[in-house]
From TrEMBL:
Domain of life according to the entry: Bacteria
Transmembrane segments: none
A Pfam family reported for this protein in Swiss-Prot or TrEMBL: AP_endonuc_2
Protein source organism: Shouchella lonarensis
Signal sequence extent: none
Family matches, as Gene3D superfamilies: Divalent-metal-dependent TIM barrel enzymes (3.20.20.150)
Domain called Xylose isomerase-like TIM barrel: residue spans: 23-254
Name of this chain's protein: 3-dehydroshikimate dehydratase
Length: 273
């Protein structure tokens, strides 16, 4: 399995892409998941591209961004075209988005239709370039439960609509990540890995916390120090797919030390499964 770090980890830390790439290579990461905001800013500098990151022995595993579902068709197409160009620049075929900003249980029929139509439009546009639109399993979206995710996949009905399997958020929905992974394996092309101290602490991953420089971080834990039993998870799914790319998604303090520990612990876990 290929392990990446996410540049969103450094959203509140003053680190250059050179520092991140140098550290990632030194600590045996295979890739970097590039946050859309970072990808757009790096595009202003001609030297930063796939060849540059490959010089570190790394690749960009995915571009992670967000679609707006409340704008015109033209605006959606322009945004998707920009993301497609960024993906080409970094030679990745994966573009991560969320399935709207309304929980599946709260979505009206018109909201659901709007999200489905926007995702179809994006899939059609990306399909022409051999690229995938990767939906993240995430609360307060139309992919917040396994059932709602399956419905969304069926409704959009495009072969390049794929899934970023966020283990914690699947667990948050009340489902068993092992069972859901096995059920959805044919649609999954990527995984996000993080953990939490207790179910009562899940609010630390809410956007208003994660994106706030003064947001609460207490309750975030190292990958093998929280509620989710990753040793069991990887032992159970290992026979299915040993090649799936994954990323350590850390939003807390001391990113380098936590990522180093998590990478080492994860590598040991994968090696023994």
């Amino acid at each position: 399995m290929s392990i990446s770090l996410c540049t969103i980890t450094f959203r509140h830390h003053l680190q250059s892409i050179e520092n991140i790439a140098t550290w990632a290579a030194k600590n045996d990461f295979e890739g970097i998941e590039l946050w859309g905001a970072h990808a757009r800013n790096l595009a202003c500098h001609e030297k930063y591209d796939a060849l540059w990151i490959q010089s570190y022995g790394l690749s960009v595993s995915m571009i992670s961004d967000y679609l707006s579902f409340h704008v015109s068709t033209e605006a959606v197409c322009d945004h998707v075209a920009e993301l497609s160009d960024l993906a080409k620049r970094w030679q990745t075929d994966k573009i991560r988005v969320f399935a709207g900003d309304v929980a599946s249980q709260a979505a009206t029929s018109s909201t659901y239709e709007q999200v489905v139509n926007t995702l179809r439009l994006a899939c059609e546009q990306l399909q022409a370039h051999g690229q995938m639109l990767v939906i993240e399993t995430h609360p307060h979206t139309l992919a917040d439960t396994p059932a709602s995710l399956v419905r969304l996949i069926e409704e959009v009905d495009y072969p390049n609509l794929k899934v970023n399997f966020d283990v914690l958020h699947i667990w948050e929905s009340g489902a068993d990540p092992v069972i859901v992974y096995k059920d959805l394996e044919s649609h999954i092309v990527y995984m996000h890995l993080k953990n939490v101290r207790a179910r009562a602490d899940l609010a630390v991953f809410a956007p208003e916390q994660v994106f706030s420089a003064s947001g609460v971080r207490e309750g975030m834990t190292s990958l093998f120090g929280g509620c989710i039993n990753y040793e069991r998870f990887f032992k159970e799914i290992a026979p299915i797919n040993k090649e799936l790319p994954m990323a350590l998604e850390w939003f807390g303090e001391a990113p380098f030390s936590v990522l180093q520990q998590d990478k080492n612990d994860l590598a040991r876990c994968l090696y023994h499964t």
